[in-house]
Amino acid sequence: MARAGVSTAPLSRLHSLPPPRPALLHRYQQPGPHVVLRPQRRAPSTAAAALPTAADLPPLSLPAAAAAAAALAAAVSLSDPERRRRAQAEAAGGGDKEAVRAYFNSTGFERWRKIYGSATEGVNRVQLDIREGHAQTVAKALAMLRDSPLQLAGATVCDAGCGTGSLAIPLAAAGADVLASDISAAMVSEAQRQAQAALAAQPAGSPFRMPRFEVRDLESLEGRYDVVVCLDVLIHYPREEARAMIRHLASLAGKRLLISFAPRTLYFDLLKRVGELFPGPSKATRAYLHAERDIEDALREAGWRVANRGFISTQFYFAKLFEAVPAGSSS
Q: Is residue 93 part of a domain?
């Protein structure tokens, strides 16, 4: 369900100022052996000379100055990402989980259905790029599972945060017994529709098993599975909540646990902060980056270790993918 896309578009608008031209120097010969370098004086250009000076400008009245200051404060307030996030969470009825649920049941659903889909009409360049990044993450997760000693056919898999089924459906096509869940009822409905279409298109003798779909948040998931997968979800939750979710997911998994997250580095943190200053109309959830050490520590506390890792990066999407196994496992 998570959408690990972080737009770097605003960086294209931040052009560096051209380097200052060195002052033209000429030699002014003083009496004696010393040579002194002094900047050459240049007459102001006609355009510069035509500009008004501060003395030429009319005085700003106190009420006008106060109004200007208030307008500036309002603009800064509206551009404050954390204040905007708090307002979104309050409007949704509380914390991050409620904001995520509300977003992906409304405007977020339409936006991400486009991203996860295959159509190109009405899909902008950024959405196409994020689609490619997410597809690479799904492909890498499938490759990790196929390269493991685990046999997918007949394996029980929990796809936690299934979105529109981009991972659950290929797992089902490989013969896995899949429980696919998402916090968004709209996402689950779309995933079920796509899975039914995929099932109808299967040839005779296909190992495809129709996944079971449920509307659930991560904390309410129950049962035991050979594999638990959680792709592009942790970006919606802060550090401590993410660590608790990892521990809970680990308690459900028996052989493999795959988790993706947006990594916290100086570079990616900068991209995120710049992107937040230019919010789009559909950017309505918080985006959290996580340090690799935090994710590894949470896995270690739950009795798991990272056996394999991958990195996926496009222009507007970046994610780390961890494949974890029980700490005592040899593979």
A: yes
pLDDT at position 273: 54
Boundaries of domain holding 298: 82-202+213-257+277-326
Within a domain: residue 34?
Answer: no
Residues of the chain predicted below pLDDT 50: 2-57, 60, 69, 71-82, 89, 92, 267, 274, 277-279, 281-284
Task: Give domain status of residue 128, yes or no.
Answer: yes
Q: Is residue 142 a contact partner of residue 178, using CB atoms and an 8 Å limit?
A: no
DSSP state of 317: B
CATH number of the domain encompassing residue 232: 3.40.50.150
How many domains does one find in the chain?
Answer: 1
Query: What is the rounded CA–CA span in Å between residue 211 and residue 219?
Result: 20
Spell out the residues 6+ positions from residue 319 whose beta carbon is closer than 8 angstroms to its own: 4, 133, 137, 232, 260, 261, 262, 263, 311, 312, 313
> What is the DSSP annotation of 160-192?
ET-TTTTTHHHHHHTT-EEEEEES-HHHHHHHH
Asked, for residue 146, whether it belongs to a domain, the answer is yes
CA 62 to chain centre: 45
pLDDT tens digits along 280-312: 544 445 679 999 999 999 999 999 999 999 999
Q: What is the pLDDT of residues 221-252, one digit of tens each?
A: 999 999 999 999 999 889 999 999 999 999 99
d(CA 256, CA 227) in angstroms, rounded, equals: 5
Cα-Cα end-to-end distance for the chain = 28
pTM over 0.85: no
